[in-house]
Automatic annotation (TrEMBL):
Family note: Belongs to the short-chain dehydrogenases/reductases (SDR) family.
PANTHER family linked to this entry: 17-BETA-HYDROXYSTEROID DEHYDROGENASE 14-RELATED, SHORT-CHAIN DEHYDROGENASE/REDUCTASE
Keyword Ribonucleoprotein: no
UniProt xrefs under InterPro entries: NAD(P)-bd_dom_sf (IPR036291), Sc_DH/Rdtase_CS (IPR020904), SDR_fam (IPR002347)
Molecular-function GO term, any one: oxidoreductase activity
Protein name: SDR family NAD(P)-dependent oxidoreductase
Keywords: Oxidoreductase
Oxidoreductase recorded as keyword: yes
Pfam families: adh_short
Length: 255
């Protein structure tokens, strides 16, 4: 699918991977709706790329639906490109040393990372299914979700996070199969260690240790490199129903 002239909606678009994605899609000619829980962050990015800022928490289905409606109203139609970057990183042991449980952390992580992704994907599918096909293949749109290498290599303390991202990875193929009749592709990217707000607070020695474990290149990924993969997925019509790791060939150790 050509990006130029298309409408795109990016959740978590006010920072990190989502911001980089919104910027790249806009640079390729898309009209971008930047959806973020932080209205201020969304406005900052949208104003700089000529997009529209939409404030919504992905755990609030009504707010997400309103964001899709607003996108259509302001940009003149439903998005053909939807990228799910909204999410949280959590760390909590199943059973802590003091014997306390982490059920609240698990529930919140699943609600944001998995149910939030499913909510956005569902509304995107409904919106896209009503659009006219773009080509002889019947293509109508592309949905790109974000998992993590933790879905396969979850470390100690990442049970909730790995489970949430594992759910995102697992829904990719059945979603792609179901939505194929509408000409909607579904793909998932599983990033490894990337330069985001979560990694910005790392101590230099911790960062150096992490990067030493990356085979090649031995550095954290840049948000723009994630965004580049989003572009390539959108533009390649036969990428569908797959999870792509983008991780410098790293396999995370238990801790």
């Amino acid at each position: 699918m050509e990006i130029d002239g298309r409408i795109a909606l990016v959740t978590g678009g006010g920072s990190g991977l989502g911001e980089a994605t919104a910027r790249r899609l806009a640079a390729k000619g898309a009209r971008v709706a930047v959806v973020d829980r932080s209205a201020e962050a969304g406005e900052r990015v949208a104003s700089e790329i000529g997009g529209v800022a939409l404030s919504a928490d992905v755990t609030d289905a009504a707010a997400v639906e309103a964001a899709f409606d607003r996108c259509a109203g302001v940009l003149g139609g439903a998005p053909r490109i939807v990228v799910n970057c909204a999410g949280i990183g959590t760390a909590a042991r199943i059973l802590s040393r003091d014997g306390s449980l982490s059920l609240d952390v698990f529930e919140r992580t699943i609600r944001v990372n998995l149910i939030g992704t499913y909510t956005v994907m569902s509304l995107a599918a409904r919106a896209m299914s009503g659009l006219d096909p773009l080509d002889a293949d019947g293509a109508r749109g592309v949905i790109v979700n974000t998992a993590s290498v933790a879905y396969q290599d979850g470390q100690i303390g990442q049970a909730a996070y790995a489970a949430s991202k594992g759910g995102v990875a697992s829904l990719t193929l059945p979603a792609a199969r179901e939505l194929a009749r509408f000409g909607i592709r579904v793909m998932t990217i599983a990033p490894g260690l990337f330069e985001t707000a979560m990694s910005a607070g790392l101590a230099p020695e911790v960062r150096a240790s992490l990067e030493a474990g990356l085979p090649f290149p031995s550095r954290m990924g840049k948000p723009g490199e994630y965004a580049l993969l989003v572009q390539q997925i959108v533009e390649n019509p036969v990428l569908n129903g797959e999870v792509i790791r983008i991780d410098s060939a790293v396999r995370l150790a238990p801790k």
